[in-house]
Amino acid sequence: MAPDTVSLRYFLVLAEELNFTRAAARIGIAQPALSARMRRLEAELGTALLVRNTRSVVLTTAGAALAESAPPALAALDQAWDTARNAGAGELGTLRIGYSLSTGAETTPALVDMLIRSNPGLEVGAVPMATPEISPAVADGRIDAGITRGEQPGLGVRQFLLRRQRIGVQLAQHHPLAELPEIEIADAAAYPLRLPDRTANPVIHDQFSALFLATRPNPRFHTPAVSFDMSQRDLRDGLTLAPAGEAAATTSPAGLTWRPLQGAPTLTIHLVLPRVPSPLHRRVRTVAKSLAHELHWLPD
After folding, report:
1. Is the dihedral of CA 159, 164, 166, 169 positive or negative?
2. pLDDT tens digits for 120-152?
3. Can you name the CATH fold of 5-88?
4. Three-state secondary structure along 217-274?
5. DSSP state letters, the chain
6. What are the C-alpha distances in Å from 232 to residues 169, 190, 221, 228, 236?
7. Ranges for all domains in the chain classified under CATH 3.40.190.290
8. pLDDT of residue 251
């Protein structure tokens, strides 16, 4: 059996000092205890490491060889311990995050950046996914975490509130309502309202449409034939308004702007993790909480 690393580390101190008194003082143990450790180390190795006399210590050939080879071996062992501890703390490994396109402008990049900065040993990969697919993918282990707009239904996962955003409308900069700091829900409902296909995110689609259902006359909802992100001519021309979260205030394309809706509830963004978390999942949760606090994503 290999000798214990404590005795080996004590030997290296003694090999530097070549004096039991100074070595014991540097280590912080009694001299007889150090002598006993060295005798046990020699017995375990089956060879003499030291030549002792009343005034000094001299290394034998075996002792000199051990003093030269032990430091890199101990450094490698220390690295192995650190690697195991970091992995156990969720600071090492590969993290796969699925995110909805609507969270890709601000929320997901901010979380990925903080995860990488705070955990250099963590390899983070993020992939856009359809929102209804994210929670099932987390539950069955295809991805480690997800970021969604709205609290999505799903078994085998836990959802943590990550961010709240005001709900408003995206509209042309030249639109008459763009002159207002806030827009009344009824005033917005007087125009056709552009909603993406419900299958993209039923939770948010229903939340947006519910804002206007009590207005009179009945709101006119328009679902574009192509992706919301691909064609916005009707918005730029001022023909329609598009309900959107506050992130649109800083990410609107040229010619468009965003205004909040007065009295509207908040839109929520959630971190999705497995119901039974690993150290890696707990690490993601810790970083996400810190980020939400730092960027004031969850105002009181």
Report:
1. negative
2. 878 888 999 999 999 999 999 999 999 999 999
3. Arc Repressor Mutant, subunit A (1.10.10)
4. CCCCEECCCCCCCCCCHHHHCCCCEEEEECCHHHHCCCCEEEEEEECCCEEEEEEEEE
5. -PPPHHHHHHHHHHHHH--HHHHHHHHTS-HHHHHHHHHHHHHHHTS--EEE-SS-EEE-HHHHHHHHHHHHHHHHHHHHHHHHHHHHTT-SEEEEEEE-GGGTTTHHHHHHHHHHHH-TTEEEEEEE--HHHHHHHHHTTSSSEEEEES----SSEEEEEEEEEEEEEEEETTSGGGGSSSEEHHHHHTS-EE---GGG-HHHHHHHHHTTTTSSSPP-EE--SS-TTT--HHHHTTS-BEEEETTHHHHPPTTEEEEEEETPPEEEEEEEEESS--HHHHHHHHHHHHHHHHTT-S--
6. 13, 19, 15, 7, 6
7. 94-300
8. 82
d(CA 12, CA 83): 24
Tell me the one-letter amino acid at 6.
V
Cβ pair 222, 234 in contact under 8 A: yes
- Please name the amino acid found at residue 169: V
The tens digit of pLDDT for each residue in 77-122 reads 777 676 656 656 555 478 899 999 889 888 999 999 999 888 887 8
| CA–CA separation, 52 and 56 (whole Å) | 6
**Which residue in this structure is represented by tokens 């990410």?**
251
Q: Which residues make beta-bridge pairs with 274?
A: 157
Closest CA to 193 of 182, 183, 181, 203: 183
**What pLDDT does 280 receive?**
86
Q: With respect to CATH, is domain 94-300 assigned 3.40.190.290? A: yes
Instruction: Tell the residue number behind the tokens 């697919």, with chain if given.
Output: 133
Burial-class residue 9 by CB neighbours within 10 Å (0-12, 13-18, 19+).
Answer: middle
pLDDT-flagged residues of the chain (< 50): 92, 228-230
